[in-house]
Amino acid sequence: MSNFGAMQNEIYMAGTQGILPDYPVDFATLESRAHEALGPMMTNYVAGGCGDENTQDTNASAFHHWGMVPRMMVDCTERDLSIDLFGLKLPSPIFMAPIGVNGEATQDRHGDMAAAKASATTGVPFCASTLSNDPLEDVHDACGETPAFFQLYTPRNRELAESLIKRAEKVGYKAIVVTLDTWLTGWRPRDLNASNFPQLRGKVMQNYFSDPVFRSLLDKPPEEDPKAAILLFAAIFGQVLTWDDMEWFKSVTDLPIVLKGICHPDDARRAVDCGADAVYCSNHGGRQANGGIATIDLLEDVVKASGAVPVLFDSGVRSGTDVVKALAMGARAVGIGRPYTYGLAIGGAEGAAWVLRSILAEADLLMAVNGYPTLERVREAGVQRIV
Length: 387
Ligand code: FNR
Known about the structure:
By secondary structure, the protein is α/β, with parallel strands linked by helices.
């Protein structure tokens, strides 16, 4: 059993030798240091969201209107935060959500590799995005023994979609996460005002540029004519998916299919009926549509509608406390998004690992204090709406 909370003792003990932590443990300080490191263009892209960003902000603030009641006289000297997912035994209930500009978040522009290394050292699975500065094969290698998932932006070209899935399967990814809410880009004022869309500048294209089907569609290889390759990417990026497409996904791979972007209980039921192996409740961190409802406020209904099918969750998770609340509402696993990308920005693999470890330490210590030694107890305890 992992003792994630022990990180606290390491920090305090180091303090007695005059050593302060290199990275912060709270989100506000992490965010401001990361924005400094990223610079204005990348900060706009990573921190920005859709419209006036109300949905994005509410995702995070809505956690505050849910509270937990502690239980006393329970032996919590040992806590078990492990979960079963797709037949895998994972040491903790969190994973790294797919973030398409991880590659650009580190100084060396290999942020996807750094995220994978953070996964290898922490045991927290990495869901690698289609949009990457390194090919999915290299990223998977860097994850070491930790299982990884591959997120698919389904291209309009079926052969290319199949090629990406097969490559992920071949190299050992454990699930395909199909993102449903991004066949086009939502209205993002910060990026629009700066007229900046990284993909159109040739960033994070390596899964396309290294793909044999993608390359076969070009007259010249991307290394010789990057502009044509980028235009091809733009032309074939987003397939509009409908429920009928599930049959095709199930026919091309034996890997579990996870549907990302489910917020309505009817969609969760439909996903289960169509054979989804997991439902991923997320609103893309408020980047795709404004005018929505915080995902945490929708989670319980999605969990109910999904029955025995596991529910993954993200959007607005900023701390270990948020993680425990989402677990209490029935999420099987909780996705960390912007916080670990900020970790990459300030300290590469080490920074991202620090962020993940801090989140797990806070979750573990909260469970200890609240008298919840297991995730089963967390679920039994549940959360209460405060306002
Ligand atoms: C994302 N997200 C995302 N999702 C996805 O399926 N594929 C992707 O490539 C990306 N890219 C991406 C880039 C950036 C900069 C951000 C911030 C987010 C969405 C991501 O997986 C997750 O749903 C959100 O990050 C959750 O919101 P918070 O917790 O980060 O606010």
